Automatic annotation (TrEMBL):
It comes from the Bacteria. It holds the Pfam family Oxidored_molyb. Gene3D superfamilies: Oxidoreductase, molybdopterin-binding domain (3.90.420.10). Residues 81-151 form the Oxidoreductase molybdopterin-binding domain. This is Molybdopterin-dependent oxidoreductase. SUPFAM superfamilies: Oxidoreductase molybdopterin-binding domain. PROSITE patterns: PROKAR_LIPOPROTEIN.
Amino acid sequence: MTKLSGSKGGNWSAWWGLGLLLACVAWSMQAQAQAELLPLSLDVTGKISKTNDAAHKSYHFTEAQLLALPAHSITTATTWTPRSTFTGPLLADILKIVGASGSAVEIHTLDDYTYTIPVSDCARYGVVVAYSMNGQRLKISDFGPLFLIYPRDAFPDELMGAAGDSKFVWQIKALIVK
Ligand SMILES: Nc1nc2c(c(=O)[nH]1)N[C@H]1C(S)=C(S)[C@@H](COP(=O)(O)O)O[C@H]1N2
Ligand SMILES: [Mo]
């Protein structure tokens, strides 16, 4: 133990300290990357006839359930992203599974933004609840984990501008059928 004191010991503990520091940096980068990629999850409540919770109030989709739904893609630019291919289930399929009977869907997000769209948007635009962009899962900082995508480039008159932009809801966590 006495060999560790003195200048050699100083070097040894400096290297040990550096190693510990690098391990901490690697660990925090890993933790950050995982926090950025939240597992997919979506809660649907309101006017629905199918539920899967104990209270018979909501239908909760897990990541596995969302990934098992038929994947549809929309290729479009948005106000925030260059022309890209967004992929995920159709909002129409999600509404069908929960037996939705309302005429509007109130969308709630992780950042507490709320916006209501008419159910008729599903038929008109084939709205996709996207979990990936160009094959990469959406991180929270990239509008993930779920981003409502409309075919803006195919309907520029209807979907470009402020009214259209507000439909592009990101960080979705829940839907309430009204
Ligand atoms: N999750 C989430 N999605 C959102 C918003 C938001 O604050 N949070 N703002 C909406 C509105 S009202 C508009 S006009 C656009 C533009 O948001 P921005 O001006 O912050 O870019 O994004 C829409 N989607
Ligand atoms: Mo807006």
